[in-house]
Amino acid sequence: MLTVKRLITFFAVFSLAAALHCSAQEKVDLETISKIRYEGFHNSKIMEIASGLMDQIGPRLTGSPNMKKANEWTRDKLKDFGLVNSHLEPWEPFGRGWSNDYVNVRMVSPDIATLIAYSKAWAPGTEGSIRGHVVRVNIRGPQDLAKYKGKLAGKIALVGDDPEVKPSVEPLSERLNEKMLADIEHYQIPSERVNPAFREFAQRARFLRQLNKFFEEEKVLAVIDHSRGAIGGGTVFVQQAGSYKVGQTVATPQITLATEHWTRIARILSAKKDVELELNVKNNFYDGPDSMTQNDTIAEIPGTDKKDEVVMLGAHLDSWHTGTGATDNGAGSIVMMEAVRILKALDLKPRRTIRIGLWSGEEQGLLGSEWYVQHHFGSRPESKDPERKGDPSVRNRVNGPMTTKPEQQKVSVYFNVDNGSGKIRGVFMQENAAVQPIFEAWMKPFHDLGMDTLTMRNTGGTDHLSFDATGIPGFQFIQDPLEYDTRTHHSNMDVYDRLQPEDLKQMAVIVASFVYMAAQRDQMFPRKPIEKELPPPPPAEEDENASPVTNPAAADRPQQPRPAEQRPPQAQPSPTPRP
């Protein structure tokens, strides 16, 4: 008769043996992995690709001329690497294109000073040099509009609460330590309650549209807010002034200042002294078919005996407009390009076709990857919400059930990179327990590179969600944060110099290996059920206890801590969070 102690020992040994057996069943081609490592570490072209994309093309706002250049450049580069069927796949409708030519903001009274400033996307320019006196405007909600009515015509509105600028005591850059990785590995059971941040975001978005209309009617010369956060030091986080959709763009120039320059103006005003600024902002709008139709870049390495089945990898190619989109998400794009370059340089013959997708419109709500998935793999009914008219319906579960297409059955797995320039430390398994023994086996050759963490957690805000929504196994890698959220994410400092070459090489080698091993498997990747439709949410109501909009012109910039189980949706003009 077994004692309790022996019984516990027996089950522990049995469980370990079962896990080892599952891992042992997963084939790992160490010879090919060694070749991939050598090519990726000794013959890397990743920083050459990075300079071509970030330095020579620059920022890539969806709908801008630079986005078109980036699509064409990546298409041609992938063809040069030896990929086949390298082409641009159009999607529509998008909206208005936009670009900025220059910004010049000066204080001309009581002192003369050049200010660090950037125009917000989809805001108009000033149509030449203009001057105006600055008025401090502190509007926290609709109840504050009346006190400014009739007082702002011809003025420059300085909006937002006073930021607190502190010395940087905590490091701006960090890597995941053992405790952090253990926390990520620990699954958090999701709450049945709706994340209040979603409701707050919706309220802010509704009020932001009301506020923009108010500034237009009051004939304000320009609206100026300050960069988010307390980092300062010339780092300016900038996104959009309003919607990219036709008929919904704002009519008033909107500018974001470096925090320290904004606070100087605010202090002078609080001392009851006049401040006069000179503004000269040249922005361009692009309308018509070339703007309404955007593109994703697609290319393939053809398969052999399983060529009708597909393994996909991808990243979003678009960026915001003030830096050069290096860490968000030039890093992911060049990693994926380098991964397929490595596979072609080694002249490997994968069993399944390997397909790379570089997406546009991610920053406006994963639009490019959603449209691709909707055209090829599956969709839900079109939204009845007028705010979402024309939007893809892949992730909007309140629209109705998912209907899949035959191509959906042919895609084994999708891998995504979109969390900056930090090296890969593991994989978010998206609650798909069946993939754990596969990834455990595949990670072993990379323990020496710091990759050893798996978590059942979901992670949001990246293009893998478009694939996951249709039942295709889609995965985002766990990455070292470095300075992604503190310095580069959507900022003017998101430039080539913030890329980390050694980390990028590690990422490309791991991605190339994972993609190749997925292409070689005897079986397709195990799948989890497609999420069911959701009932429509109750009508939105104003909540008097909701957090005030302390910086209303920045209300389209919800912060996105990574990783997280739930987070507000990405900044986008639609006021309703995407389920």
CATH topology of the largest domain: Aminopeptidase
Mean pLDDT: 90
What is the class of the largest domain in the CATH system? Answer: Alpha Beta
Q: What's the Cα radius of gyration?
A: 25 Å
Structural class: alpha/beta
Unreliable spans are: 1-23, 553-579
The number of distinct helices, counting runs of at least 4 residues, comes to 14
Net shape: globular
- Biggest sheet, open or closed, and with what strands and sense? 8 strands, mixed
Tell me the name of the CATH homologous superfamily of the largest domain: Zn peptidases
Distance between the termini: 54 Å
Structural commentary:
With 579 residues, the chain is of the alpha/beta class. The chain has 2 domains: 48-94 and 297-520, Aminopeptidase (3-Layer(aba) Sandwich); 99-289 and 548-554, Glucose Oxidase, domain 1, CATH 3.50.30.30. It contains 14 helices and 18 strands. It has helices spanning 4-25, 30-42, 46-55, 65-80, 178-185, 196-217, 259-270, 289-292, 326-345, 367-376, 436-443, 464-468, 484-488, 501-520; strands spanning 84-91, 97-109, 113-115, 117-119, 130-137, 156-159, 222-226, 254-257, 276-286, 294-301, 306-316, 352-359, 378-379, 403-404, 411-416, 424-428, 453-455, 474-479. An 8-stranded mixed β-sheet has the order 1-10-12-11-15-18-16-17, sandwiched between helices. Strands 3-2-9-5-6-7-8-4 form an 8-stranded mixed β-sheet. The protein is globular, with a radius of gyration of 25 Å. The model is unreliable at 1-23 and 553-579 (pLDDT under 50).
